[in-house]
């Protein structure tokens, strides 16, 4: 990793190569972060519920499969780490994670963060470890502004966002105590093609792309005029790796990251349908309006974009992948997977 302007953020002990533990390394975003870190001269400990593959690169890589809801397993995963990237959250395929009906939600999304803090509290020798926490721009809740820059008061509207905020607050309090050095990076909607075969993106872009490739209509709530800030997965991963490089300047607060470009959901889904049609040879599937589900919250119907200028001023990060190119990569990747699955019987 490169050094931050104010000195190396991830400081090794006694001159050894820094050890970075990535929790949730086999997930959609986690595998992208692991792949980028593997290209840097660090030691990597990639931890997830199921054993992941070793990404190519110059890093020394260790993979572990562990149930991290066990505090002992989490403590073992953090042993000797100079930095930890916390990419674990509990989200099921249903809406239970939004409403709080899933009993594991609070345990994983909040309880594990307290376990992490307890695991590093009182560690002897060396500077406090860096903890990079991945939050969500939706933590802010319903705002009066169409563009958020991180200065807004947090009024989370869903159980998931309240859990994210509680976890973030615990880490920032631990930073004030000197237990660790936490940086929270709040991401908007992240999409893209899966970096490794075992990684699964359960986001809306992937869901709609799969429907389009199958010839099924795409559904949008109400009139589809709601706009979102869409961030391609490699840009999101690069923002997180860059945050590690600049943790010395970023620690102790949250930072919002995004493209600054609003995209209406109807336009987004129409583009997905067009790209899929070019691959299937048929006409684009229709984008139809449906009533929103009962678990929808007021922020779901509020358009917003992200002003990442504060994060950019410290790190120099900017997104590289335009929306259309990111959508093309996503749909093409899913189409390839679909062909291989059909060919395999």
Automatic annotation (TrEMBL):
Keywords: Membrane, Transmembrane, Transmembrane helix. Pfam families: Epimerase. InterPro entries: Epimerase_deHydtase, NAD(P)-bd_dom_sf. The keyword Transmembrane applies. The keyword Zinc does not apply. It comes from the Bacteria. The chain crosses the membrane at residues 20-40. SUPFAM superfamilies: NAD(P)-binding Rossmann-fold domains. Residues 20-258 form the NAD-dependent epimerase/dehydratase domain. PANTHER family: DTDP-D-GLUCOSE 4,6-DEHYDRATASE-RELATED (PTHR43000). Belongs to the NAD(P)-dependent epimerase/dehydratase family. This is NAD(P)-dependent oxidoreductase. It comes from Streptomyces arboris.
């Amino acid at each position: 990793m490169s050094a931050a302007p104010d000195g190396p953020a991830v400081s090794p002990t006694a001159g050894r190569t820094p050890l970075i533990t990535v929790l949730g390394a086999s997930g959609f975003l986690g595998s992208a972060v692991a792949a980028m870190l593997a290209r840097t001269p660090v030691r990597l400990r990639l931890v997830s519920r199921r054993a992941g593959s070793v990404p190519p690169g110059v890093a020394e890589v260790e993979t572990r499969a562990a149930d991290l809801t066990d505090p002992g397993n989490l403590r073992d995963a953090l042993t000797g780490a100079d930095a930890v990237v916390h990419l674990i959250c509990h989200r099921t395929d249903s809406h239970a994670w939004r409403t709080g009906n899933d009993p594991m939600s609070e345990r994983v999304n909040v309880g594990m963060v307290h376990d992490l803090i307890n695991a590093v509290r009182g560690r002897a020798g060396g500077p406090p470890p860096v903890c990079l926490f991945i939050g969500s721009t939706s933590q802010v809740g319903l705002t009066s502004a169409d563009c958020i820059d991180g200065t807004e008061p947090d009024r989370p509207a869903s159980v998931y966002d309240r859990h994210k905020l509680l976890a973030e607050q615990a880490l920032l309090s631990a930073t004030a105590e000197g237990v660790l050095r936490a940086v929270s990076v709040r991401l908007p909607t992240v999409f893209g093609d899966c970096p490794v075969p075992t990684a699964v993106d359960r986001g809306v872009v992937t869901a709609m792309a799969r429907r389009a490739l199958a010839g099924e209509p795409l559904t949008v709530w109400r009139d589809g005029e709601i706009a979102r800030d869409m961030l391609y997965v490699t840009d999101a991963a690069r923002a997180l790796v860059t945050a590690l490089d600049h943790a010395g300047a970023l620690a102790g607060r949250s930072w919002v990251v995004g493209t600054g470009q609003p995209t209406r959901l109807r336009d987004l889904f129409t583009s997905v349908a067009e790209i899929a049609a070019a691959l299937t040879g048929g006409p684009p599937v229709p984008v139809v309006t449906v009533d929103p589900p009962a678990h929808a919250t007021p922020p779901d119907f509020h358009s917003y974009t992200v002003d990442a200028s504060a994060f950019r001023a410290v790190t120099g990060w900017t997104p590289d992948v335009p929306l259309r190119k990111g959508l093309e990569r996503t749909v093409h990747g899913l189409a390839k997977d679909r062909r291989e699955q059909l060919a395999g019987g």
